[in-house]
């Protein structure tokens, strides 16, 4: 079992992820979830509150469209208070550099998008290095695969294209490669995660062609990482050194029948999470992070219980899972209808900027933290040589 509590990457096995999407919806409205959840102004309080619950590491984000106010002109006032609040609280942060949004003057399909993103990433790395002595961890582009589908294939949000998902995915991989190169030139210590959906697709009833299509669709979950690592389409520029910690996002609706409904947990067609984690590790031979996971409403504690039990099974099988990120860690307004989605450990803030804690999820989190400590102690004791008789 790998313990990250004393390692440089995260500092805490359980992480909290703050929703930081900043994309434009198909109706043209730009979202800013850091602002609408209040986290941008409450970051210090949020980090300290999480620390009280044993969560000393988070995923959080920069809002590129607010920072790069003109080409190569950066204003850091939306980011520095969060960075300094994390430092003051002793919270380690994985910084998302592009969480679906970009400056309005850029054409995402153009070479300039890649060049500007690399320059922005390098500038951000310089700011982080100047402000913190911690080894930085970045997620350059969040969910390349989902973004390619939602933004490039079905037009759900920017760039609101249809039938261009293949093209968009490759553009996002190029941007990720450029960002990693630019950051490493500034700070060679930097670590990187991906945050890609982990899915399972079953054929269900159907002919051989339907079975083939279901299998092919399931394999697309690996395409972005295969390109990034150079295993596929090496002409794009991928190579093994671009794949560091493999972050995987897993939610209750991440398994479904091809062209059909979600597969319920417990059904014979539902694949165990630990098997999916083992497959990903076998494919890439990198440490894994569950970069996002969570459920809504009354399902929150039960889902965390399930995910952690599967992580324990994966660890027992030698799969190096280095952390679990509860995402989002704070309730947020839905992208499309602004309905408050009660998914987090933390509530939306009240008029005084105070958040409440979901007691059932907090109890389950404490239980899982204690169980993890027991398992580590057991593993450590089991590794000791037996005393001579």
From TrEMBL:
Instruction: Note the InterPro entries from the entry.
Output: GH (IPR017853)
Designated name of the protein: Beta-glucosidase
């Amino acid at each position: 079992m790998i313990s990250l509590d004393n390692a440089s990457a995260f500092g805490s096995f359980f992480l909290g992820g703050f929703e930081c999407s900043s994309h434009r919806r198909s109706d043209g409205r730009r979202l800013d979830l850091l602002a609408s959840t209040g986290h941008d102004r409450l970051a210090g309080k949020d980090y300290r509150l999480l620390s009280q619950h044993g969560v000393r590491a988070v995923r959080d984000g920069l809002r590129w469209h607010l920072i790069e106010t003109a080409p190569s002109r950066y204003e850091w006032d939306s980011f520095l208070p969060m960075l300094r609040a994390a430092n003051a609280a002793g919270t380690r942060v994985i910084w998302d550099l592009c969480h679906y949004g970009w400056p309005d003057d850029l054409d995402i399909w153009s070479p300039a998008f890649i060049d500007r993103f690399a320059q922005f990433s390098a500038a951000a790395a310089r700011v982080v290095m100047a402000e913190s002595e911690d080894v930085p961890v970045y997620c350059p582009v969040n969910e390349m695969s989902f973004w390619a589908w939602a933004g490039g294939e079905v037009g759900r949000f920017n760039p609101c294209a249809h039938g261009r998902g293949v093209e968009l995915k490759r553009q996002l991989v190029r941007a990720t490669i450029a960002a990693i190169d630019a950051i490493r030139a500034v700070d060679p210590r930097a670590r990187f995660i991906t945050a890609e959906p982990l899915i399972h697709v079953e054929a269900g009833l159907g002919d051989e062609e339907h079975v083939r299509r279901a299998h092919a669709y399931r394999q697309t979950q690996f395409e972005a990482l295969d390109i990034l690592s150079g295993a596929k389409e090496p002409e794009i520029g991928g190579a093994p050194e671009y794949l560091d910690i493999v972050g995987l996002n897993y939610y209750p609706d991440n398994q479904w029948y091809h062209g059909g409904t979600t597969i319920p947990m417990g059904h014979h067609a539902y694949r165990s999470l630990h098997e999916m984690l083992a497959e990903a590790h076998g494919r890439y031979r990198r440490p894994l992070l569950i970069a996002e996971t969570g459920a809504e409403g009354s399902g929150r504690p039960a889902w965390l219980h399930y995910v952690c039990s599967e992580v324990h099974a994966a660890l027992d099988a030698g799969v190096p899972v280095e952390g679990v990120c509860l995402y989002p860690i704070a309730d947020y307004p839905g992208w499309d209808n602004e309905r408050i989605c009660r998914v987090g450990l933390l509530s939306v803030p009240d008029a005084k900027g105070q958040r409440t804690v979901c007691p059932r999820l907090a109890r389950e989190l404490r239980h899982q933290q204690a169980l993890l400590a027991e398992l580590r102690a057991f593993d450590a004791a089991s590794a000791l040589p037996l005393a001579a008789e």
